[in-house]
Amino acid sequence: MAENATAWAFIGPAVILIGLFGLFPALFTIYVSLFKYRGKPQGAFVGLGNYAELLGPNVLYLIAVVAAIAGMALGVWLIGRRHRWGVVALVAGLVLFAAGGVGIAVALPYLAAQGDYEVFDSLRVTIWYSFATVPVQLAAGMVLAVFLHRKMRGTQAFRVIYLTPYVAPAVASAAVFEQIFSLRPDAFANQVLKLFGLKPLEWLQSAKGLVPLLFGAGALPSAGAGTVGAYWLKWAQGPSLALSAIIIYSWWVFIGYYALIYMNGLSSIPRQLYEAAEVDGAGKVRSFFAITMPLLSPSTYFLSLLGIIGTFKAFTHIYVLRNVAAQGTTDPISVLIFYTFYNKSRMSYASAISMLLFVIVIGLTILQQRMAERRVTYGD
Amino acid sequence: MATRMRAFARRRAAATTAVAVALAAGAFVAIMPFLFMVSTSLKTLVETLTRVDPLPFRAEFWPVEPQWNNYVDAWVRADFSIFFRNSVITAAVTVAGVLATSTLAAYAFAKMRFAGRVLVFSLLLGTLIIPESVYLVPNFILITKLGWNDRLAGLTVPFMASAFYIFLLRQFFNQLPDELIESARIDGAGHVRSFLGIVLPLSRAPLVTVIFLAFIGSWNALQWPLVATRTERWRPLTVGLTMFISESGPEWHLRMAGSVIAVAPVVLLYLLAQRQFTEAISRSGIKG
Hints:
The structure holds two protein chains of two kinds. Chain A has helices at 2-32, 49-55, 59-80, 82-114, 117-149, 155-167, 170-180, 188-195, 210-215, 226-236, 241-267, 271-279, 284-295, 297-313, 316-319, 333-342, 347-375. In chain A, helix 5 runs parallel beside helix 11, helix 5 packs across helix 16 (333-342) and helix 14 runs antiparallel to helix 17 (347-375). Chain A contains 17 helices and no strands. In chain B, helix 1 runs antiparallel to helix 14, helix 4 packs antiparallel against helix 13 (237-248) and helix 8 runs antiparallel to helix 11 (204-220). The model of chain B has no long low-confidence stretch (mean pLDDT 86). Chain B contains 14 helices and no strands. Chain B has helices at 2-41, 45-50, 69-77, 80-111, 117-126, 132-145, 152-156, 163-175, 178-186, 191-199, 204-220, 223-228, 237-248, 252-281. The chains are: A mainly alpha, B mainly alpha. At the A-B interface, helix 1, helix 5, helix 6, helix 7 and helix 8 of A face helix 1, helix 4, helix 5, helix 6 and helix 10 of B.
């Protein structure tokens, strides 16, 4: 009994603070999103009005998208049961998965067309940012960790240097990258282009998509057919050049951090495995793919979870390089929420958008946990 | 056999050289922007426009005559005395709060058995997936109601406890043998004494790490201070620097001087904490 009281006294301060500023706000956000707070914390009850503005008036499109996602999930689940339930489960699963995919391809454009286009544009930016940063950082971090793990002099110095971009304030390091990616012909990025005989670009101030930039304006049709075509044409443009510059900046910031986490995973791989592989005649590259990569899968799982959720939360590293000339093509949903609240003082609407973000993050977490259960090898 | 060994050693040496070269190239990329920051901060305005070169081993990268005065100019023009003081106080108070709450909680979760332990711990961990953007509006309303808007409390109290630090410390406390605490308790020491007298003195590396992480978390924060400050009274360096950067326009030398001022304390502390920090980050609770 006394132990209980002491223990609660120990955790009390942390529990109260995290409860008040960490758990309670998540619920309070739902409450705020049902009102019309604007600046002053008072406002009329509007029910789901903010969500109607966010997702559009016709709830059928939302239901269609959710049903399509559920269909795909159910399909994957059925495919996973094929060993127990046989070919029927496999076929039904594949059909459901495909139908869900088609459902999203058709219903999502209509949902985006009737909802707040800014929110749907920012979701696309978020996904691009996430998919262009996390896999690259994982791959580069892993290779770097393997290099750093080698026994030789000076590795601690390298570790310190590689982590410096991660610990330095983004406001300051971004100021340098603003100069590196400035539109001046003698800016660093443009000097590099010049080495390859290319013309200078506008980088952070360019809203142009990467695909038309790389393959010429004629690579894509000028206008998509109908709502569906127009929506997916926006995806086909690729991330804007400005967003690409921010993505490069993120690589610079995070690769060292990823490498350091991987190093822990490396130190727990037994040496004998590599020796055995060498006896069997496997080269360095072969043992990297056959031993290192699979045995690092717990670290990869941890980092991809951290990374994908992290990119959905990312704010500072994007906000500081944001340029008006990029016309919002660099604003992920976190930045949009901030602007909706801070510049437009639309607190309730910002809360509604943040609930959408929250639901997506929870969905991603569940998805990753499911995938990890099957894929992660815990080498002992 | 001997020739084979020698060939092997030679191949190994060659591989080590190749790896060292690759690592050095990567380190150059990691460090280059900082060199750029320093060199630009020492140039004259004219030099920032005319004397430019992307490579630090060429003379044009550096100023003809280092302009140390740029730092004084930036410091005065951007009101850095206030912002710097604000950031130092905010970070110190936050770090102290984090240390107090998270060491106590981590000790209880690692070394005590009590009702609700698992439930509370998983609830706390659950907060880690909640995006910051979700907190923004409700916490703003909360600190406004508490009268903490534009106050030190509004900048510090919400960050004085985090599940992440509790988790990190608990991982370490878990590794300390239970017998250590048991035997102290047989000698009549309560949990408070074994916490202060045994566990904390043995935890230098993780404590240094938590201090450093909480420090950079507070020092580098931008989003919340933008929202929670209205005047210069408690506005931190990051916000001050952001404002200065947009005001200074094309005066790159001053911008970079301001950036160096913001980076310097972090780098200094980092060099002091680096061994413990790189050690603890690379084992922050994941089983490899």
